[in-house]
Amino acid sequence: MNTRLQILAIAAAASLAAPAQTPATAKPDQEHAHSAALSAETPAPLRGILIDASCRDFSRYNLRLAPQALPAPAPDTNAKAAASGATASGITVDARTLDAERADAMPHQVADLVSRQSDPTCAIKGGTHAYALLLADGRVADLDEGGNTFADAAVKADPQGRAMLAGQAPGFKPSVIVTGHVQGSKIVTTAVKIVPR
Predict the structure, then answer these.
(1) Could you say which DSSP state residue 124 is in?
(2) Cα(171)–Cα(123) distance, rounded to whole angstroms?
(3) CA 162, 165, 169, 172 torsion-angle sign
(4) Helix, strand or coil for residue 156?
(5) Taking Cα atoms as reference points, which of 67, 36, 66, 54 lies closest to residue 140?
(6) Read out DSSP for 63-107?
(7) pLDDT for position 109
(8) Using an 8 Å Cβ cutoff, are 143 and 53 in contact?
(9) Short-list 149, 176, 180, CA closest to 49
(10) How does strand 140-143 pair with strand 186-194?
(11) SS3 at position 131
(12) Pairing of strands 91-93, 131-135
């Protein structure tokens, strides 16, 4: 047992005594690989259009389309009927009962309903949780989890984004500057800023 411990102690001492390879003593090809790795990790600004990463159609034609407009509000044809009571197939319902029933049946009919529906043109809507960047050359790169958080904060800070989230404006495709570096098909993001076009 003591022999094993002595052998392990000698091996540990030898590994500690071995000179560590520093960048000054590194081989030239290792220096090149190290500088390439650093330049790949240095954040760089990327300009493009922020879109919904969960969109189904990333064709160039679809991505260049304008977001869908909000539908016109439907006229309230039941206001008169609700004031006097509504009649359907011989059944008359007073206004108070009608309001109570309508409140139970229609809770999802709120102002921001449209903002939570997906947009076929990949515009950002209220239900967008994953973002992507459409670059000038037509490539699409997804943002990483941190980038999604930065993009979400930028959308909520933008006046048009707030109007969209409140159901007062359609989805939108803002022009942005994303600071980060590309790793494969993702952008490791350190900042997202919405800029005027």
Answers:
(1) B
(2) 5
(3) positive
(4) helix
(5) 54
(6) HHSPPPPPPPPPP-THHHHHHH-EEETTEEE-HHHHHHHHHHH-T
(7) 53
(8) yes
(9) 176
(10) parallel
(11) strand
(12) unpaired
Among 118, 126, 144, 145, which Cα is nearest to 57's? 118
Q: Name the pTM for this structure.
A: 0.60
What is the Cα 52 distance to its own chain's centre? Answer: 6
Distance CA 149, CA 188 (A): 12
- What φ, ψ does residue 88 adopt, rounded to 5°? -140, 115
Q: How far is CA 129 from the centre of its chain?
A: 5
Calpha distance 43→168 (Å, rounded): 36
φ/ψ of residue 50, rounded to 5: -80, 125
Do 52 and 122 touch, CB atoms closer than 8 A?
yes
In terms of residues, how long is the chain? 197
Span 115-165, pLDDT tens digits:
667 778 899 998 899 999 999 988 999 999 999 999 999 999 999 999 988
Residue 142, classified by CB atoms within 10 Å of its CB into exposed (0-12), middle (13-18) or buried (19+), is middle
DSSP state of 172: B
State both tokens at 157: 């800070």
